[in-house]
Design brief:
15% helix, mainly beta
């Protein structure tokens, strides 16, 4: 069983009213790549969150709760832990 960590950057734009509209998530192989992408998005998006998800790519079995590594700005309540 090969275990790997995938780093995901999710950004959000203002929607109608107080709602947020999510952009498509981006995945990265290293935490450094993901952090650089998140840092760039902070200046142009309402909110940004970076997650780490560990699991087995062969079976598709990943953590139920990805670990939040970075967050900035407005993000949905379920990611603001």
């Amino acid at each position: 069983m090969a275990v790997e960590t995938v780093y995901i950057v999710q950004s959000f734009q203002p929607g109608r009213g107080a709602r947020l509209k999510s952009d498509p998530p981006s995945s990265y192989k290293t935490e450094r790549q993901a952090q650089r992408a998140a840092d760039r998005l902070v200046t142009i998006r309402a909110g940004v969150v970076m997650l780490a998800n560990t699991g087995d790519p062969e079976t598709g079995d990943y953590d139920d709760e990805p670990k939040v590594l970075f967050r900035s700005g407005r993000i949905p309540p379920e990611l603001d832990v």
